[in-house]
Design a protein that fits this description.
Blueprint: H1 3-56, H2 59-81, H3 85-102, H4 107-124, H5 129-147, H6 151-167, H7 171-185, H8 191-195, H9 199-210, H10 213-225
Helix pairs in contact: 1-2, 1-3, 2-3, 2-4, 3-4, 3-5, 4-5, 4-6, 5-6, 5-7, 6-7
Length: 226
């Protein structure tokens, strides 16, 4: 390699290195911006929900209706903008649960309704139902952890709500949501088995296998009698 070629190679490597660093800095900056936006959405939803519930004075029933309205409003907003539903779903779900918790509302019921609303809304506008379900479940679980609620119970009803909502869309949606949420519920005790009823399918063969037992015994005795 000539000296000129060596210089060109070093210059190219240095240029590529600078480009990589520029992209890295840009990505880090963008991610910081996304985190700030998500935090703002959580705060906005939380304050709006808690203030509305305090003004209404009826926590139990009103919180469910407000959860539906908040999710619906988010979906309508993303329709107008064109993108961002999957990104904003977690923040909205988290904000709803925290807002309801602030006024002593039923977090478990609202978690279920919030996830259902997100899944159905995603289907209405043709968004990825499974991803939206995952983001919504992530949001309600994260919120429950922060407010000191029953994470296992909330996770169960959230996963169940996602699957129920997917059931109104079709079998393909149910399978996609189940596949996506199996990974989410790992690490939360007994949630996967509660939400995805595997033990029922395992119980049937045991009954069938044990049934022939008495027949074999009877035949053996009759032979001895002969």
């Amino acid at each position: 390699m000539t000296k000129q070629e060596s210089t060109k190679t070093e210059g190219l490597s240095e240029s590529i290195g600078r480009t990589g660093m520029t992209i890295k800095e840009g990505v880090v900056s963008s991610l910081k911006g996304i985190n700030e936006i998500e935090a703002e959405i959580v705060s906005l939803v939380r304050i709006t929900v808690s203030n509305t519930l305090r003004a209404a004075g009826a926590i139990a029933s009103e919180s469910v209706d407000i959860a539906k309205d908040v999710v619906k409003g988010t979906i309508q907003a993303t329709e107008e903008v064109g993108t961002g539903l999957i990104l904003s779903t977690k923040s909205v779900a988290k904000g709803v649960v925290m807002g309801v918790s602030d006024v002593g509302g039923d977090v478990i019921t609202v978690a279920n309704q919030t996830v259902k609303g997100a899944v159905k809304g995603a289907a209405e506008i043709g968004a990825d139902v499974a991803l939206v379900a995952r983001r919504a479940v992530d949001g309600v679980i994260e919120a429950t952890k922060e407010v000191g609620g029953n994470v296992e119970e909330v996770a169960k009803v959230a996963v169940g709500g996602a699957i129920d909502a997917a059931g109104t869309i079709g079998n393909t949606a149910v399978k996609a949501v189940k596949d996506m949420l199996v990974g989410v519920v790992e690490g939360v005790k007994e949630i996967a088995s509660a939400a995805l009823p595997k033990p029922r399918t395992q119980a049937t063969p045991d009954v069938e296998e044990s049934a022939p037992g008495p027949e074999v015994t009877t035949r053996t005795r009759s032979r001895r009698g002969e």
